Amino acid sequence: MDTNYYHARSSRVAKAVSRKLGANGTSRAVRLNESSTTMFSRAVATCSRFAVRPYTVTRIGTRLPPVPLRHFSCTPPFRSPAVLAHAPTQADLEADDEFSETEIIPAEEATLDITDAAAEQLRNISVREQDENVSLRVLVESGGCHGYQYKLELTSKREPSDYLFVRPPTTPGRVGVVVDPVSLGLLKGSTIDFATELIGSSFRVQSNPQATGKGCGCGVSWELKE
């Protein structure tokens, strides 16, 4: 603060008051000047006890520095390719009436990704249920508002015609994801995730290369690419 400026201003005010009041008002003007100076000195002494923060506005018209922009990012769930622990043979498919005319999907095309959250949830379920073979079965069925829909359920039963995907290391048994050959043809390359939300937690299928992306808001029904 410029103390000289305020002292000079107080003197000018006192002189102006003196001219207005005449000789009898001179003493009052002097007292006014002294009073103004004393009040200002006290204010300066009070303010000096407090440290002025950086970038604090001390005069009218002082500009604050621009606030830096905040950048927000959404990190997708960590995923990694699952290991194909079991693949059916042609004899296995022919022995199953439901898939007797289904062709085997080559091992290099039979791929799924399983996120850390999904793998951890399956392991927790296995421990809680004391079932070393509990797995997540993923089915693709006709229906829904877009032609196809996902069905996910826990199972301890696996058929010879099933594909089994696991995330190493497995604990204990073969906890993983089970898919039949027809469903795998519509799911290969997808990601299996476990999401926790306010409305509930559930397993779900994400990033399906066979889907157009024009799916239902519920994430269950989807449309097949042409």
TrEMBL record:
GO terms for cellular component: mitochondrion. GO terms for molecular function: 2 iron, 2 sulfur cluster binding; 4 iron, 4 sulfur cluster binding; iron ion binding. It comes from the Eukaryota. InterPro entries: ATAP, ATAP_core_dom, HesB-like_dom_sf. Gene3D superfamilies: HesB-like domain. It holds the Pfam family Fe-S_biosyn. GO terms for biological process: iron-sulfur cluster assembly. Residues 112-218 form the Core domain. NCBIfam families: iron-sulfur cluster assembly accessory protein. Belongs to the HesB/IscA family. This is Iron-sulfur cluster assembly accessory protein. It comes from Rhizoctonia solani 123E. The lineage of its organism: Eukaryota, Fungi, Dikarya, Basidiomycota, Agaricomycotina.
